[in-house]
Amino acid sequence: MSIRVAESAGFCFGVNRAVELVERVAKNGKRVCTLGPIIHNRHAVAHFEKMGVRVINSPSEATARDTVIIRSHGVTRAVQKELEETGAEVVDATCPFVKRIHGIVSTAEEEGRLPIIIGTRSHPEVEGIAGWCSACKVFESPEELLS
């Protein structure tokens, strides 16, 4: 049996960036919450809870005293606006690659094209991307795309 250590391991760039943002903001003594778990890792979420970071599931749970961090998956345009209206400080930890896709679907729609997204409809990243245009099609599989 041979064991090889991977050349790289850990979080992707966007998740790593979001985690570092939470660390930095939480250490500044602010009242911090994340909109949804910052990453899909219960150990990381528990670590942040020990630092006083709480998870909220809706912008309506935020107050003007909070600093709300948007996770790397991003959010819809409507959720972004709703967060801003709470008066909370908003720190956008959306992965820059995901943010770029938000712009792509928004621009495509403005140009009269129909954005097509392939992914799990209920995944926060897909929901966020779809929320940057008013009419798009989401397909979960090649079979669904062909039907």
Task: Summarize the SSE layout with pairings.
Layout: H1 13-27, E1 32-35, H2 42-50, E2 54-56, E3 67-70, H3 77-85, E4 89-92, H4 96-110, E5 116-118, H5 124-130, E6 137-139, H6 142-146
Parallel strand pairs: 1-2, 1-3, 3-4, 5-6
Helix pairs in contact: 4-5
Features:
41% helix; 147 residues; alpha/beta; flat; single chain; four-stranded parallel beta sheet; two-stranded parallel sheet
Could you characterize the architecture of this molecule?
The chain starts with 12 loop residues before the first helix and ends with a helix. The chain is of the alpha/beta class and 147 residues long. It has a four-stranded parallel β-sheet, with helices on one face. A two-stranded parallel ribbon has the order 5-6. Strand 1 (32-35), helix 2 and strand 2 (54-56) form a beta-alpha-beta unit. Helices cover 41% and strands 14% of the residues. The mean pLDDT is 93.
